[in-house]
């Protein structure tokens, strides 16, 4: 269900279950978590096989869970999303086709979301009596604002790529989403990792500023020779 391919600085992780629109079971989530956690490349590209990015949780599997099992399934989805969010590599969601429910929530955990013009986005859980519980109620308002998050989640409305870009749900719109991962891979990738850690830092302001200074000093020391060459 989860395919991993490494090419230079980019690890491509593909959710490969196109017959189910890449819906995820417990086994799929666990495999996705391992694929992200094991990465030592500086850039991860997360994509779906076939005509969809990811439909989220496999509802057939969810329908068989009792309350305790359902809560555990939600905790697992949250853990996978946190693994993506906290990973050292910069993670790019390459979204072509539908990203729904948990699929959208996993994309929200990525650092950058790059969609094609054919991509679409929605949290349809409310239409069948559920809601996204893989961290979506936390990340969606943080990214698009509380008002837009409530409107999307409470109506189950699907938005297209252009609207998703306008509301800040997408980082960029590209015919070829891999363009962004390639741009990242062409940079000084140790600076990428430092940037991600600083932007994701949720410590108090003074601690964040201290860590920012320390990270800048470390990079300046590491790249002193290159900086000198630029000035020649």
UniProtKB/TrEMBL annotation:
Molecular function GO terms recorded: catalytic activity
Family: Belongs to the enoyl-CoA hydratase/isomerase family.
Stored PANTHER family: ENOYL-COA HYDRATASE, IP11341P-RELATED
Protein name: Enoyl-CoA hydratase
